[in-house]
Amino acid sequence: MPNDSTTAAAAGSWTLGDRAVHRMGFGSMRITANPDRARAIALLRRAVELGVNHIDTAAFYVSPGGTLGVGTGRARYATELIRAALAPYPLDLVITTKVGFGYDPVSGFTEALTPAQLRAQVEENLRRLGLDCLDVVNLRLGRGPGPVPLADRFGALAELRAAGLIRHLGLSNVRPERLKEAADIAPVVCVQNNYGVDAYREQDEFVRVCGERGIAYVPFFALAGTGREAGASAEQAEAVRSVARAHGVTPHQVRLAWTLHQGPHVLAIPGTGDPAHLSANIAAGAIHLTPGDLALLN
Questions:
Q1: Is the Cβ–Cβ distance between 217 and 265 less than 8 Å?
Q2: How confident is the model at residue 228 (pLDDT cuts 50, 70, 90)?
Q3: Is 61 among the residues known to form the active site?
Q4: Which of the following is catalytic: 61, 77, 103, 217?
């Protein structure tokens, strides 16, 4: 039975790029919402104490404004909070970030389309994280084909990888047919898409294909589902509630357990700014769903 002392190791491990990470990681978007900087720093340190060695972030995870659109006061960047909390970084820690989109307090969201713009975003991540080389960089794509071919943008990141600024590359918000196009340019170590027990299940086959190719599949909004930035709803499908009752856990923990049960290559990155939620999320990695549970949830 999972409890507050359960560590991220309970979820098992997967090799992301060239380093093994626990499959239960941490998403940093929500740590910027609260103006209490010390609270975010303590939460990040607690995550690492509980065995988290895979943290997802982006330079555009910032409040006020930013992805969450909340908050007041001085700008709080998730990348800078990670640096303040954890640098010098543990040797086993993998930090995954994203480029392709950015956020400016004056002009709002921007999209990096040229090699120079992508390099500027990579350098911003390096600066804010205090690193010389980024572990994993995902190219975050928009909806539709976009004004610049994927090959040009991913190729620009591949050049930065060759120059030693990036160790590994991935894709975010990507359609299945575009994976091969990118992989022909440079190795793709992960795909990060919106996916959950009741959201975007048309990607089930894509999840399977990534596993066959040895590519990590990293769902975002696995807890929030279609709520996305608004966060997880208190309302849950009856199937999720039923499985939660059977195991004596919360519906949110069932959602995370279901995520991990989709394959050994699937990594969870639940995000929170609440220490109690952090422990509960990590503990979900110890929940073993039965075939009957999975059939009900599916």
A1: yes
A2: low
A3: yes
A4: 61
